[in-house]
Known about the structure:
By secondary structure, this protein is mainly α. The chain has helices spanning about 15-30, 35, 40-55, 85-100, 105-120, 125-135, 140-150, 155-170, 175-185, 195-205.
Amino acid sequence: MGSLPVSPPRKLPWVPIAAVAGGLVLVLAFAFRDQLLGPSDAEQADAADTEGEVAEPEPEPTPEPETQPEPEPEPEPAPEPPAIDPAELEAKITEATSLVNRQKYDDARVIIDEVLAKIPAEGRALALLAQTQLEKGKLEDALTTANTCVGADPNQSFCWITVATVEQANENFPRALEAYRKYLEVEPDGQHAKSAKKQAARLESKVEG
């Protein structure tokens, strides 16, 4: 068997291949132009706007005001101790009353002044002072003390009878009538009740007609 004749090698079509390859390069270059050339100005602006929108923080919620605790009430101050011990006060009033009843007015005055120096509005001490002043003929002093007395303690009947007696002597009949009536309200069956009723009746005819 004879050998077959060998055909000469065929030339490759380089021109068409080169054309195709060049077309592929153009296509790839167009497709990947962003990676090769970077984003355009418009795209960069859009990206910047997008980033700006994303970067804007959300407004923080308004914090609620803190509730302040109410201040605790201040403790009430402790009551001041009495200026004089109650038992001592009663003992001094009893002693001064005994001295006045025995007409020892100067001795009684020492105790009365001691009590009033500590408790100026002590009604019983004021009544005893008015009595000593009245007995010594110091009518205006007695009237001043008696008015202070009924202002501090309206239940001191002797102070009312003192006001009535002195104001009647001063011809201040309306005030005298008022004082006689107050005395009778406080002590309707008291030591001076009979005289107070008689004097009140006389003054009513003058004051009220």
